[in-house]
Structures are given as structure tokens and as C-alpha cells.
Amino acid sequence: MSLARRTLMxxxxxxxxxxxxxxxxxxxxxxxxxQTETAYTEAADHAARATEKNTDALHVQPCVxxxxxxxxxxxxxxxxxxxxxxxxxxxxxxxxxxxxxVDHGHELTVLLADTVRTTAAAHTTGR
Length: 127
Hints:
This protein has about 130 residues and is mainly α. It is about 80% helix and about 0% strand.
């Protein structure tokens, strides 16, 4: 949604990182599309900067550690949402999707930890 079409509240929410709930799947789909487009637009810049400065394994390590820390924090937040959904008896399909997201998030943190270990090992062996 373009900034011109947003309400003042939506603009403030976007500026301050507030989230709102959407009751219609078309609104959710539009938001997901916008998030995806934004991420892919920013990805080209990330790739260019990463190519410039990631000249060896130890240059990669801090970035991967940063991503792992953010993913872990988000996964733990999702665990809290999952607990709340279970405690409130929300829809089983929602609980199942949250469980899947939490499980995959934990798998991702393990893979990122392994990547960090590999950066140290590659540095030690000189690769």
C-alpha cells in the first residue's frame, strides 16, 4: 500500500513498528506480498555490501552471529505466542502452524550456530 493511501494511524504504525491485525485474507496476502517485495529489494543491496566486505570466514562470522541472535529472539517470542494460543484454546490449525514455525526456527538457529562454528574452523585451517 502506498504511503498516500495509508491512513495516519497506518503510517504511524509503520514508522514505529507497531503491528495491527488483519481480518481478511486479502489484506494479509497484500501485506505478505509487500514484505516479500521489500525484502527482495533490500537483498540486492545486502549482497553487494556483503561481497565487498566478506573477504574471509571471520568477516562472515559477526553477521551470522547477529542473524542467529535475532532469529533466536524471534523464535522465543513465537514460543510465547504458541503458549498463549494453547492456553487460550485457540484454533488447532493456528497452534499447529505456530508449532511448525517454532520448530523450523529452532532448526534455523542450529544451522546458523553450525555456520558460525564453521567460520572459526575455516579460519583455523586457513580457508
